[in-house]
Here is the input.
Amino acid sequence: MSEEKLKFPTEVVELPSNGIVYPLDNPLSSGKVEIKYMTAKEEDILTNQSYIQKGTVIDKLLEALIVSKIDYRDLIIGDKNALLIAVRILGYGSEYEFSYKNEKIKIDLSSFKNKPFDKSKFEQGKNEFPFTCPKSETMLMFKLLTHKDETKIENELKGLKKINPKNSPELSTRLKHMIVAVDGSDDKKDIRNFIDNYFLAQDSRALRNYIRDFQPDVDLTVSVDTLEGGEEEISVPIGLNFFWPDTEI
Here is the structure.
């Protein structure tokens, strides 16, 4: 059989950000990423015990499936989510079942849409945005986290856990990577001091809620029935089982 016949088709994924957060000289600025269909070779990645133990299995999978000449580490989290969903649909279909409060929830992944966002608040290639704290009126600048940022956060948390196993400052650590300036100062020492000692909980929550609604992403929320007869909105979990629900690992 010729190599041409063995060649698998590819699909182009539209990024939720439309590429607006990336510099024009970055291929991601096109707002599109080409990925190939999953094969048995990529399934081997999902069961690679070394990748699983290191927590890099999903990243290794995406890197193997991305055809476009991009730096995977540059992807903001919302755009990465879009690729995860596209890979799952191409590999195992759009039907996905997961457990929530001992109930089986079945959803159609193809029904997920990219969240609308206000493009007027974005400037091509600029990943810094203003936010005024509602309580203290502190002026902040924040960035949308990339895969590279997430890796740094994970490594920092692992280091902190070695120093103090009982301490898990995940929220404050993420904020230290997310906030890039406080009242005009971009000094990292000033930023960390502010977050550790002066960032009011009310302002912290307001910032996180603002970023959640502000950032380009896929709308991962679904409505599920509650035991009381009502409905509850939850976010669909994305982990190793997202790609292989029947896996025993």
Remarks:
- The two ends are 36 Å apart (CA to CA).
- Strands lie at 10-14, 32-36, 95-100, 103-108, 129-132, 139-142, 179-182, 221-225, 231-235.
- The longest helix spans residues 147-163.
- The chain is about 40% helix and 20% strand.
